[in-house]
Write a structure and sequence with these properties.
CATH topology of one domain in chain A: TIM Barrel
GO molecular function (chains A, B, C, D): hydrolase activity, acting on carbon-nitrogen (but not peptide) bonds, in cyclic amides; metal ion binding
Oligomer: homotetramer
Bound molecules: zinc ion
Number of strands of chain A: 21
Number of helices of chain A: 13
Cofactor (chains A, B, C, D): Zn(2+)
CATH class of one domain in chain A: Alpha Beta
Structural class of chain A: alpha/beta
Strand content of chain A: 15-25%
Family (chains A, B, C, D): Belongs to the metallo-dependent hydrolases superfamily. Hydantoinase/dihydropyrimidinase family.
InterPro entries (chains A, B, C, D): Amidohydro-rel (IPR006680), Hydantoinase/dihydroPyrase (IPR011778), Metal-dep_hydrolase_composite (IPR011059), Metal_Hydrolase (IPR032466), Metallo-dep_Hydrolases_sf (IPR050378)
Largest sheet of chain A: 8 strands, parallel
CATH architecture of one domain in chain A: Alpha-Beta Barrel
Organism (chains A, B, C, D): Pseudosporangium ferrugineum
């Protein structure tokens, strides 16, 4: 089946350009100057709309096990919510825990996603125990499984933590097999001291989750990861959920040297703060407990992160979607912030929240598309199949209405959460139509997709290296 | 007339993608997944070739008057040579001298180009005398004449030199009318002291042209221009012909702050050196006398410039094509390097010389296209008409043969110069076919174009600002 | 005549140490562990006092001609006021104006000081016109006249301004003859544009003196001077009256590279601000019109300058004492801030104002002495004759009472000014006794000195270079 | 007993000054202008000599247990050798091992030193196991034992290693009790990976000790220590044996911010290199196995370290004296560099080796004295008792002969080592006479001291903080 998306303005990384887009089956097959395409064909009217590549969220945690509970979105509910928000591909994290076989972890995640996803998906692999076996597994996943990125943690001693020797070994192996090392960059051993001291002082509310994770300990870990990557012959390094000015400085300094060091930030760090959200009265702040934490509004974090997005010191924006309900889940931490499950849900809102940046003059249209779609595809080995409106690419397409408005709240969102981190926010722009591999799954805001439509996307090596 | 460029690999800024390109008249009208385009149509076979946007050289000086002589390429010979090298648009410099009316200078350059150019062209305007009248003229040129960039000189006191007060005023005006300030950043008054002292010491050979223009005086002027632009409320600033590591540091520092500061470098700075070329025996070095000068091979300039191209601290590459023959022209400076006309011809070789960087692993394919075509178009207000293979864009297209080789020399080049700055260099890649606004002007290396085909391109404001 | 200063605590640059000081004639002849000195001798009781080297103010302008008027303190009134404040040596500026003979300027200043000074004095030479003649004069002054520092101006075009070529030539000469180049680092040509524009907009009050001299134009000039000094083979460079954070950054960066770049700041920049003083209602702000100007309290200038004093990025503190009365003098600029004579009087208060920094925990005792006495002596070639309590040194000694308090105001100060820039300030510490070359000139706050006691101090080369 | 050191030039941190020094008993009691002191008194002729404060070596390891052996100098042989070299005080390291009681470690070291030392000595305390008990012990040692500096290790996992949580806790405690944290800054876990890999590849010779400890892992650890100290409310931090350019950059950056971050380097890093010494043929390189290791001569380490000494980014020079003989000791590592005891002996040569820097124009005389004597005293709470020639100070004095020469070698040195790390070096300057608390222990190069003369010096808090 063929159809023509007509009358819209295609936005690429270098800017907007009016063009009609011909879809045939699952792929884009042609782009036409307006009105020059085939006449006798079904059309989708894109007049007044931006036609952008389906957005890619490269950092989600659907139904992730965490401290006796599990992230509240399944791959079913989570990918459906993502689709509503204009995201047509996610990359989730399969997990190897210490002592487990890497391939078993991957198999478990394949089992969870089989038949449940509404949109396409790939996996990064979390390595919870770097040793000879897991290093061999890295090679195999890169060669055979389409897994080309591996996440390590400098925090959470006893859970996912790798020491610097393990990190160095994994980086050396990545250097050899071409994979990307993703890093949760916070100094866990030092944070744990601060957390223990705070709790001993009776500082138990959610706000202290933030103050016990000072930006210096994110900056330090970011810096350390960069040093270790240089010792590993400049292994490519990707810092996840960068939240703080001083951490950004470390990344920017490495990039000035031409290093293959990249970072993402998340919408929550661009908008929300330690004081206004995490410091909300009572236990309310638990809604925004995530790590890295929200930062102080009295410092320049948010302005610096927006600037970093403009300068490409921050390559892209992911959500780190990891939702937990207040009831029964976040509530586990009443009286002890360290027991609050860490995570914010937002997979549905990234495209809109970043478009607000366009409206506010903080990003160009081209940079919007780049940070939510094109760079994620290039960074993680899915380009040009994903991330671009081009002949031959998957027909993952969003029609975005710049004249629309989006109001966010628990009553209207589609994520499986009993609150919204953005309750009451009304912002410019609206996702109008979402196409996944040629199939319209959202039309005029109404859902037409289905669980099982989404397919696994084996990924190649990053082609984003400098 | 229509035809299909078939079988090639279209390269955009984000990377290569196989696609067929449909040209109708002067424009690109469609891109197709390979083999999906119209069947009954004339075709150009691009099998094995890169299909890239026609390159844009944003810094040339055809038949520029200089010290009693004139650059040896006319707009006719120079644009024909450019076409041979895959360049389909140049931006040359119209000149206002001190005491002249700006619009008269522009008219003079329009007169020179009328009917003589083989490819499209635009103009920057050199302001040789900033005062109330010329500031008013800036506004008029931006509004009515398609001139949106204005060059000032911190060197050449008594010729083009503007003092810091004049620079500040021009920057303030540019801030208001949206234009870009281009800067020749060398500290002229200090250089003139060093030149005079060298000549007094009997140091008269071409090599001393280089040592009397130390990189510190380029870095200083670059830094000063950046400070002045910040006082002018962050007026957009573009540093021309950046040659030196320390100057690059200034640009990089400003860009880290998110400033609208940009820079170009030129092929000569990426490959040639103070010692090997400018320091050639006898008067030979005169061939490479240009300002800013070639830099020492014992410092890290070339590696730093290549890195700057990768990190986008250098946005693009121009040639600063300003050819003079050895005979009668360069020879004016025998016995006094300060009398050697400043300039190197290279408009024909930029695309090839930068492709060599791709082969050497210094640039990605996408970045090659970006630095020679897409960014110049965006930087100087010609995008998406120029600089991109997209439906609706001018059909300025180059078929580039990665399997070919190019040998450079005076016997084979098409520039009106009696020597080549790159004599004997043989490099990878070859321009196969060049299309200008739909017309094939070079086919399989043979020329089919004509003087007068080229048209003036009025330009809009830069859409490259961060 | 001999006497013993007994019971006090001698403060050197490395800290306090109890010791008794024996003075014989004009010199210090011995230091003793407490109580171990000669018994049968006149004593001055220093119990509870700090015994510090007489302070040196290396930047004053007594009776300096300026725009038809003259700084209101003569060498008589000004050096007497200095003595009251614990300063026993000044270095004033002799002036060569454009077109004048350097030696004539020096002779004029020797004439003014002959028989009039209460304390010892030296001269820096202002070069208002760098040319072959004045460069030769530099050599002669260094060799024969004890003048080893030469001040140039990057501001005041048409008055003292040197262009970058002149600056470079003077720096080269200084490099050869060993002298120090002192620099008034503000970009005058750019400032003059801003001043003209402000006046045209009717912004005529003193506050606009400040905003038309933005810190960027001080930082730029500071940076440029540092670049030029590097071209002059690392000629020693001393930035006068540094006032702004961004200028300090330039100095700090050069010093990190081990460059011989130094800077002073002044008490007014450590305490007073654009808003609170220069922005006082009506014409009141004229009291604080000086260049460089007071900086905004909403930026971090004051904290940064104090930190710079601690880190030695700021080597020392001078006053730039250049007093003008409100009546008839400052009033020349009613309705046009650019006509207000530039200058603040403060020669009397530096020692106390910096001691307040000790009380506030911003400086150590040793650093206090270093910044007001020892470094000025070393920087400007008077050490160990001046600036230290050591056997053989001139007996320039201050007994400072840390338990005392000083209240500043026009009723009590001794400078010839009809207002005080520090009216009503009450600060910790008090100058108790001042000894100049063995003679007590202030005792218990009462004056015992006389005009003509002060002698010219020919200076050697700086021994402060790194 | 009294005597007068007559005719010499006293050198203080601010420069040389001729003066005579009166010693009475153990103390200096007076300084006199030349010739003005007492006449009827025993004299030591210092004509032509520099009279400097006895040098202080703040980093030695006499008879330190290490991997089944012990550093080859006892407190007896080592302090005697130190005295020959002009050092009159050492600060050695008492050791708490993991699981031991801190105070027991201190007692053990007091037992070793009782009656054995030729010169005065103090102790730092190595904390090999930070926990609640040892943190309490810190307070007690500061309050009662004159131990105010505590060393932690980021290297040597399983031996002295502290993790980042332990480091943070110790820093917090130091912040509260005023102590200085000293840091061995190398990333041990990462180094251990590199060492294991090298040995597996058969790279077993001493040279690979160096290449498995790349400067990046010193710089990283230095940076991390600085970050952790900032989290500990700017706890004072002292980096030991800094050897590398990139590590120095970290310290310099912190110091530019006004942080209380200090560093020492050692003579071996100023002169010796990875290639020329550690890379000597066969097992010869074992002589120079120490950690941090010698650095590459192809990089700028040595020049940068000398510059750091000039700029005070390196505060002082210690030896890290930790001698092992080749026979039986270094030989333990034949065939496995990781088994070579780490350490170089040099306590005897520091004063001379640094004086060579004066001769080479790399340090001023005043800075020489500052880096070997005055700053060590101030940094570690012994000033003004030690480190300065001033009335009331201990009569620890060296007469240094600038006209002498020193030839270093195993035949002439006094350390208990069967080789010299400086064999055959002949350098300018010579220690002539050494006085410890008033007693001449070296006279004209001949030894007159005795074991047991040296006394324990309880130390106060650092008074060197900025
Ligand atoms: Zn994470
Ligand atoms: Zn995550
Ligand atoms: Zn130019
Ligand atoms: Zn040019
Ligand atoms: Zn001035
Ligand atoms: Zn002044
Ligand atoms: Zn160590
Ligand atoms: Zn040690």
């Amino acid at each position: 089946m063929s159809y023509l998306i007509k009358g819209g303005t295609v936005v690429s990384t270098t800017g907007p350009n009016p063009a009609d887009v011909l879809v045939d089956g699952e792929r884009i097959v042609a782009l036409f100057a307006p009105g020059t395409g085939p006449q006798e064909i079904e059309t989708i009217d894109a007049t007044g709309k931006y036609v952008i590549p389906g957005a890619i969220d490269a950092h989600t945690h659907m139904q992730m096990p965490f401290g006796g509970t599990e992230a509240s979105d399944t791959f079913d509910t989570g990918t459906r919510a993502a689709a509503f928000g204009g995201t047509t591909t996610i990359i989730d994290f399969a997990i190897q825990r210490y002592g487990e076989v890497v391939q078993d972890g991957l198999a478990a995640w394949h089992a969870k996603t089989a038949g449940t996803c509404h949109i396409d998906y790939g996996f990064h692999m979390i390595l919870g125990g770097v040793d000879d076996e897991s290093l061999k597994a890295m090679d195999q996943l890169v060669a055979d499984e389409g897994i080309t990125s591996f996440k390590l943690f400098m925090a959470y001693p006893g859970v996912f933590y790798s020491d610097d020797g393990q990190i160095l070994r994994a980086m050396q192996r990545a250097r050899d097999n071409g994979a990307m090392i993703m890093m949760h960059a916070e100094n866990g051993p030092a944070i744990d001291v601060l957390v223990k001291q705070a709790l001993e002082r009776g500082e138990t509310d959610p706000y202290h989750h933030g103050v016990t994770r000072p930006q210096e300990l994110e900056a330090e870990a970011t810096s350390r990861a960069i040093w270790l990557a240089s010792v590993a012959a400049d292994c490519p390094l990707y810092i996840v959920h960068l939240s703080a000015s001083k951490a950004l400085e470390q990344v920017a300094a490495a990039r000035d040297l031409g290093r293959n060091v990249f970072a993402e930030t998340c919408p929550q760090y661009l908008y929300l703060t330690l004081e206004d959200q995490l410091g909300a009265p009572g236990f309310e702040g638990a809604k925004w407990v995530c790590s890295t934490p929200l930062r102080s509004k009295h410092e320049s974090h948010r302005a610096d992160l927006w600037r970093g997005l403009r300068t490409n010191d921050l390559a892209m924006v992911s959500t780190d979607h990891c939702p937990f309900c207040m009831k029964d889940q976040k509530e586990m931490g009443v009286g002890d912030f360290s027991k609050i499950p860490n995570g914010i849900g937002g997979v549905e809102h990234r495209v809109d929240l970043l478009y607000q940046g366009v409206v506010d003059g903080k990003l160009s249209l081209g940079r919007w598309v780049e940070t939510i779609a094109t760079t994620p595809a290039r960074m993680f080995g899915m380009y040009p199949r994903k991330g671009v409106i081009a002949p031959g690419s998957d027909a993952d397409i969003v029609l975005y209405d710049p004249a629309g408005r989006t109001r966010i709240g628990v009553d209207t969102h589609h994520m499986n959460m009993d609150y919204s981190a953005w309750e009451g926010w009304e912002i410019a722009g609206r996702v109008d139509t979402v196409i996944s591999r040629g199939t319209v799954i959202v039309r005029g805001g109404e859902y037409e997709g289905r669980a099982g439509h989404g397919r696994y996307v084996p990924r190649g090596l990053s082609d984003y290296l400098v």
